[in-house]
Amino acid sequence: MTYETILLNVEPPFAHITLNRAAVRNAMNFKMVDELLTVFAALRENRDVRAVVIGGAGGHFCAGGDIGDLAQVASMSEAEQDAITARLDAMLRAVNGAPQVVITRLEGAVLGGGFGLACVSDIAITAENASLGLPEVRLGLAPALISPFVIQRVGLTRARQLMLTGERFDGKTAVEYGIAHEAVPSDHLTERVQTLLGELRHCSPNAIREIKVLMGVVSEQSLDENLAYRARLLNALRTSEDGQEGMAAFMQKRLPKWAQPREE
Q1: I need a surface site. Which of 107, 160, 205, 228 has the fewest CB within 10 A?
Q2: Domains in the chain, please, with CATH?
């Protein structure tokens, strides 16, 4: 399937998504939101893919919402506006709750909705000279839909600063703020992402999926509420096919099946 605003390359165990509106620094229009939602819905059922890398074309990640599309909203009915915001929210939730490891490759502009997309990724690797920020307040707007994910990522104190000032900062500062995990020189960005994918080849596909669910459960429930779930999960994974294979491979000093090269 081909898309208008993104490029998709699926080569198990990984999928690569490229935001592909380079002429406007990959600004997120309504079509891009729909296409990202479609792709993540399909990938959710693909058990051959254990990680998804999101990057941008033309040296930029995403400059935020497309101003042209945003300007059209004023002429829409309330129902149409609600439908648009619902799709954006659904897309953010789909990325945030994806069963795969979601990696964002940040460079150039990482603003507004692009910033939000980084905040719903599991691992963010950024170029040191990337430009990040939440400029909505300087446009008379608010980062309303992405706000829960931003606050969860950086904490309320830092979110207040970033949302209320719209200030820009670089990749090194993004690591300091907790938005990105690592900052590297821009010419090392591809190499670092590939190294990370190499590490993920050693990780059980089933364990990745279960850990993604685990993190959501333990962050939303009290210790007493999720105790039974945590205990059942540990016992289930110990006796699962991947669990048995992983422990056997460790004892036999060999790679588990999921880490072995795929047969062509």
Answers
A1: 228
A2: 6-200 (3.90.226.10), 205-259 (1.10.12.10)
Report the candidate in 214, 192, 206 with the shortest Cα–Cα distance to residue 241. Answer: 206
Query: Which own/partner pairs from 207-210 qualify as long-range (CB within 8 Å, at least 24 positions apart)?
Result: 207/237, 207/242, 207/243, 207/246, 208/50, 208/51, 208/99, 208/100, 208/101, 209/47, 209/99, 209/100, 210/237
Distance CA 56, CA 63 (A): 10
CB contact at 8 A, 3 and 35: yes
Pair 71, 122: CB distance under 8 Å: no
Q: For the segment 166-204, what is each residue's pLDDT rounded down to a tens digit?
A: 999 999 999 999 999 999 999 999 999 999 999 999 999
Measuring CA to CA, how many Å separate 175 from each of 180, 187, 221, 260?
A: 5, 18, 28, 33
